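User: Second chain of the day. Same drill as before.
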Amino acid sequence: MKKVNSATLQTIEAKCVEVEASFTNGLPSFTIVGLASNIIQESKDRVKSALLSNEYKFPAKKITINLSPSEIQKSGTHFDLPIALLIALYETKAIFDDFFILGELSLDGKIKDSSHIFAIVLSLVKQNLLKNILVCKESAKKLANIPNINIYSVDTLSEAIEFFTFNNKEEKLFKIANLPYKKLTILKKDYFYMNKYENDFKEIRGQNYAIQAALIAAAGNHNILFEGSAGCGKSMISKRLSYIMPPMSLNEILEKAKLQALEYKPIEFYPVRVFRNPHHTATKSSIFGGGSGNSAKIGEIALSNGGILFFDELPHFSKNTLEALREPLEDYKILISRVNNKIEYETKFLFIGAMNPCPCGNLLSTTKECRCNDIEIQRYKNKLSEPLLDRIDLYVTMLEANLKDKAIYSSKVLHEKVINAFCMQMRRGQKDLNGKLSDKDIKKFITLDDKCEELLHTASKNYALSFRSINKVIKVARTIADLEEQEQITTSSILTALSYRKR
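Assistant: Same format as last time:
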């Protein structure tokens, strides 16, 4: 009996799978066992056609392929290649060693990439389970950005058979790629960023107060809520924030690519953070994830990890959706529990909300008359509960734009400030940006002098601030000090942070 290492994807994490083959006397048959999905069952015809098309004999034996462990549901077309190799080399002394083999076969024996291969390999590398892998060249180009693995590539089934038959493995070694972007090295760790801005802040007129708040949000990964009349620039500012976000580590870039692969989108390795903006009619399961077992699907919450989640027209989202946001905004993770399994996702995203001041949107307008009565306005605002608003770091009221206003900032200038603040945070030894620091990390990385402590105590009594609110004020103040390149938080930073709290 021969066996080959492969893997399957369970939601977003990979599980190792041993592909075993036995050949016994009896009526010729070809069976795949071990909770194989219909996609894998179809591989029998692809494998047989690929072998016969390349003049390899298909054994007249009773062939049984087992995918172990048998209790795990398996899926994916990438099992074609390991199955074909076991059958083609069953009479030889070929040894597959510690190689993981992944690849889909065409009917003529060409090896193709599949959507799950990148996510599987990245997950296995993070679990320290994979060192050597054999894939097609199309897959190798994507995997070349993953460090600390040996990638071997072949184009056809015949080349894969020769790879394990003859001693020519080094010829098939694929070169590791280097990301062609600007790079920072802080405490021996590399971070990448770009200076291209498809949407630039210089296109926004005026709104100095809102842009300053957006700068603080980007520099420290703080949640922010914009309130203002329609057309004042809430969405414009929000959509430009992803271009001035802090640099990304290689792990963050790879995780972003992994989520793109799981969403069946083209994989990109740009160091620009993801921007997700679901419509307010989106279902709760599409935002938080749904399904069960191997068919569980990730939602917008998980897909926006490390980037931005933007809810436009915030009060129009369902009450259940808004209240369910409280856990990921507080704990930076979300647990989806199902009968068969439990799935946990990281949710360290920057949350942006945008809303009108009233149902008609004209309450703050100086040129248009508001058509809403007090009851309608109160009902509209009551859709946002106090516990949810307490998780918002920065609350910004925006006035109407004036045609005489001029652009104040460009994305390039703002991005340079964000990068400087990012460097200060990382040099302190922080693993997370200020906005996502835990209570323990706040005590470790943020210190306040007596004047700041007294000011916070007074503000806490006057504005009835909760413990969570106080911590958010401290974290925002730390980011403001970082933007001003100050090692110590001042009372001015505290006052500015308090000015952004909703009262």
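The chain has a mean pLDDT of 93.

User: Great, on to the next one.
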